[in-house]
Amino acid sequence: MSVQPTSETASGWRAPPVVWALVGSIALGFIVFALAPRELQNAIDYAFALIPARFHSDGALRFQHWYEPAGPIFGHAFLHVAWWHAALNAFFLFLTARLPAMRLGAWRFLVLFFASAAGGALAFLALNWNSQDFAIGASGAVCGVFIAYFLALRPTWVQALAEPAIRNQLGAIFFLNVVLMGVAAESGFLPIAWEAHLGGFIGGAIAYVALAPRARWT
Fold first, then answer.
1. What CATH number is attached to the domain comprising 92?
2. How far is residue 92's CA from residue 142's CA, in Å, rounded to a whole number?
3. Which domain holds residue 30?
4. How many structural domains are present in the chain?
5. Residue 91 lies in a domain
6. What is the DSSP string of 18-35?
């Protein structure tokens, strides 16, 4: 059974400006990075990629200033390893962001997006503590927008989760992006930061529940 969105859903290429702004930022971030000299690319990666060892206070790679961790926690969402990586994240963001963006409004949707990105970052850091492996990409933030989309399919998130069809589709998305991607990553088949997907889902769910308009009693 396919779940149909409410009448608030944008159709075709229509979308709130905040959605286009985020999609454009992902595209622009990739273009700027791709055109930058190698030395600048390395500096950008070091400043904005999620490198768990940089968050270890006793490590050689640790941050030098208190404000520096904000760079990778939020900025990693605008870096991508290849054009197809950026394109996939931009596509799925556009596909799922329109309904929650209309439901929340621009500023609250931005909070949700960045809360999802931060949730993905914190989960990746926690589950790879002190590692020098790094992660980049908007997939954690997009996973948060995914769950916001499903929670926005009905007037309240409680009503959305009460429908088996919505729960089943959301569960399938979670299983694919966390469980299957986790197996693929841990087996060495695909270098996917499934931990960021997990954290993004959690961050997006918490943010949507906190920010969604409350139902009015009549």
1. 1.20.1540.10
2. 7
3. 17-211
4. 1
5. yes
6. HHHHHHHHHHHHHHHHHH
